[in-house]
Design brief:
It is globular and about 50 Å long. The protein has helices at residues 14-23, 45-61, 72-85, 97-103, 115-118, 121-130, 144-149, 156-171, 188-194, 205-218, 239-247, and strands at residues 3-8, 28-33, 64-69, 90-91, 108-113, 135-140, 176-180, 200-202, 229-234. Strand 1 (3-8), helix 1 (14-23) and strand 2 (28-33) form a beta-alpha-beta unit. The chain starts with a strand and ends with a helix. It is 46% helix and 19% strand. It has two domains: 3-93 and 205-245, 3-Layer(aba) Sandwich (Rossmann fold); 97-202, Rossmann fold (3-Layer(aba) Sandwich), CATH 3.40.50. The protein is an alpha/beta fold and 248 residues long. A five-stranded parallel β-sheet has the order 4-3-1-2-9, sandwiched between helices. The chain has a four-stranded parallel β-sheet with strand order 6-5-7-8, sandwiched between helices. Helix 2 crosses helix 3 (72-85). The chain binds D-glutamic acid (DGL). Residues 8-10, 12, 38-41, 71-73, 93, 114, 117, 145, 181-183 line the site of D-glutamic acid. Residues 8-10, 12, 38-41, 71-73, 93, 114, 117, 145, 181-183 line the site of D-glutamic acid (DGL).
Length: 248
């Protein structure tokens, strides 16, 4: 029996699972929240690679035939190593700078992501490519992951935390904001309330889901499992994972 493994530092990757299940509803998924080691955002690349290995081995031992690294930070730090060490396809996440740069009318793109993602060579290269065409303003979504892991998706405290990182991007004139961390889409309703009308938020998850279909086809991985469903696993408490899963 085949399955698709998905992991993140926590529950954020559920925002990716949501999009994947929209187009591949009849698969078997094993979702792993590495929340005992969350957040990954400020951790070293070697630490994240070690966690990536441990989680990948667990997912493979449970029958995963492909792995979605549903975490921008882990993709930036570890996906190249994981691809070189394990015999299954890996699909990763990266901030959607390209569609943002194409779509902006103000010429200013805002990027919200973790510190690890914003300093990764992959992101820096992408940014460089669009530097002539648009102005890119970036901020770490400081405290966003903790809000989501704490199931605090709204309310005065959540709003203050989100404003702190989002408002400087708006003040710089960004009309298109890239959600460069898979936790952040859970704060989207709050962000949309704070941002003026017309500001567009871009989540790469739908594009990643479409890419996964191509990758599975390219590798001849059979679609439609006889026993579809989602198995939720975590290295720490599964309380938030279960609650957020019920929201997707
Ligand atoms: N959800 C993750 C990402 O997409 C990482 C959040 C964290 O653990 O800092 O980057």
């Amino acid at each position: 029996m085949a399955a698709i493994g998905i992991f993140d530092s926590g529950s954020g990757g559920l925002s990716v699972l949501r999009e994947i299940r929209k187009i591949l509803p009849d698969e078997r998924y094993i979702y792993y929240s590495d929340n005992a080691h969350c957040p990954y955002g400020e951790k070293s690349a070697s630490y994240i690679i070690e966690r990536g290995r441990a989680v990948t081995e667990l997912l493979l031992s449970k029958g995963a035939e492909a792995v979605v690294v549903a975490c921008n930070t882990a993709t930036a730090a570890a996906i190249a190593t994981l691809r070189s060490e394990y015999p299954v396809p890996f699909v990763g996440m990266e901030p959607a700078v390209k569609p943002a740069a194409t779509g902006t009318r103000s010429g200013v793109v805002g990027v919200l992501a973790t510190a690890g993602t914003l300093k990764a060579p992959k992101y820096l290269n992408t940014k460089e490519q669009y530097a002539d065409a648009v102005k890119i303003e970036e901020r770490v979504g400081r405290g966003f992951v903790e809000l989501v892991e704490g199931m605090e998706l709204d309310g005065p405290h959540a709003e203050a935390v989100v404003r702190e990182s989002l408002e400087p991007l708006l003040a710089a004139g960004a009309d298109t904001i890239v959600l460069g961390c898979t936790h952040y889409p859970f704060l989207l309703p709050l962000m949309q309330r704070i941002a003026p009308e017309g500001v567009r938020f871009i989540d790469p998850a739908p594009a990643v889901a479409r890419h996964l279909v191509d990758v599975l086809n390219d590798h001849g991985i059979a679609l439609s499992d006889p026993d579809p469903g989602v198995e939720l696993l975590s290295s720490g408490s599964d309380a938030t994972l279960k609650k957020l899963f019920n929201l997707i």
